[in-house]
Amino acid sequence: MKRNVKISIVISILFLGLIRLRPIWERKPGDLFNVLFLLVIVTLFLWLTINIIIELVRLIRQRHNLTLKLFIPFAIMTVSLLDGMFNPFKIDLDSLYGNVVFQAYYEGTQNQAVFKLRDNGKFDLHWTGVFFSDTFYLGVYQQHGDTIVLDYKGIKPRTFSDTLVIQGKKIYELENDSLKKSLFYIDDLKR
Fold this sequence. Notes:
Layout lengths: L1 H19 L1 H4 L6 H30 L6 H19 L13 E8 L3 E8 L3 E8 L3 E12 L2 E7 L9 E5 L2 E6 L2 E4 L3 E3 L4
Antiparallel strand pairs: 1-2, 1-9, 2-3, 3-4, 4-5, 5-6, 6-7, 7-8
């Protein structure tokens, strides 16, 4: 019995920890480690699901002499699985990096990106694509009217300018003193 409780606690903590800490580990170390972390989450999800079924069968077999202690592993794993899937407590560690004030998306045929400006003067651009491409571009920004100047910390993407102009619902990139329509589209953030 104690072994079942320990196993269920360890699996549940790992599962919830990886899910809740995603905003942190997808930035650092990021890249191919994201695929590894997601595979671990899927493995833990399957492991939790199988162990819940095993515990349920065990409870059914021992239905004539049930005690509260027999329900503990089943309850721990079920609550962890439901919390990991639905997040009823609304835990969002992405807000550690600042509240999102502007958001834009790009959806290509083999890649996609999310660009976020945060209220603390920082931005992040999360670009993912085929063959496990997964890169975060981070930095600070300054906004002057409808112009946003990005100062990248570290690497800079090849296909996204460091000066943006927002006009209505459209984003333009400044390249060689001329405006080029960006492939990103704006999200209104009316949530």
